[in-house]
What we know:
With 301 residues, the chain is α/β, with parallel strands linked by helices. 51% of the residues lie in helices and 8% in strands.
Amino acid sequence: MTDKLFQLTTETRNAQTQNLDQLPTEQILKIMNEEDKKVAYAVEDVLPQVAKAVDLVSAALQKGGRLFYFGAGTSGRLGILDAAECPPTFGTNPQLVQGVIAGGTSALVEAIEGAEDLPELGREDVQKYGITDQDVVVGIAASGRTPYVIGALQEAKSRGAKTISLSCNPVAEVNEGVDVAINVVVGPEVVTGSTRLKAATAQKMVLNMISTVTMIHLGKVYGNLMVNVQATNQKLRERVKRIVMEVTGISYAEAEVLAEQAGGDARVAILMQKTGLDRAAAVELLTRFGGRIRDAIENQN
């Protein structure tokens, strides 16, 4: 088992960084920057697989399912981060996209490395979250062999859920039996085995793609504007006004009034301006089209 671990791409030594501790600061930074540049190209290589994952997730969520990220350590934290950003950015229910980390929420701030070695913990967490055949589970493991993630994927599959694996090695145990396997091979890390570097960057890029494009498919973006943004602080309240201005062409003062009348909902404010409806009627129209503002605008009659 140990021999196999050291054969993984994510565990091999990087020929470009073997004298890292003897280099001046700026040279180390240049090397890190050059290595990071490779990540986007590695992600580019797996875009067809990411597209399959997005379509799978979009179809499930459109039918009332949920998206779960399961991971350990850095991978688990990245899943929770992506899930946590969905409600403020896209106005989603916090239950729609959820991140689960081996060892529980305390593992977010304190490493609980032993938890990742127990596949039964992964299975138990799938049971705990009541995952069903309507849901999608993404197992995230840079090494591609994390027992916790393997256990979670196996249990999810046994319950009929769709499964996706995300790893950073060309061959990964987490791929076994999943519906979509995404292997982003970023090569050896700058610091040997430190997958919080390139591997984590690649994982975050892919998770951003999965959640963002899924939300676009769900109608939570109009053009390239996050019209479902939740105006929960001053910055976001100003963003709502700017979005209303961009879509309708009205002034800041007019957008401010509309945003207030719409209760801070950019979609409702836009519909009110474009259709002449009051707030209640605009909300009803938006609801009729499942929150899809473009459909509501184009089919208002």
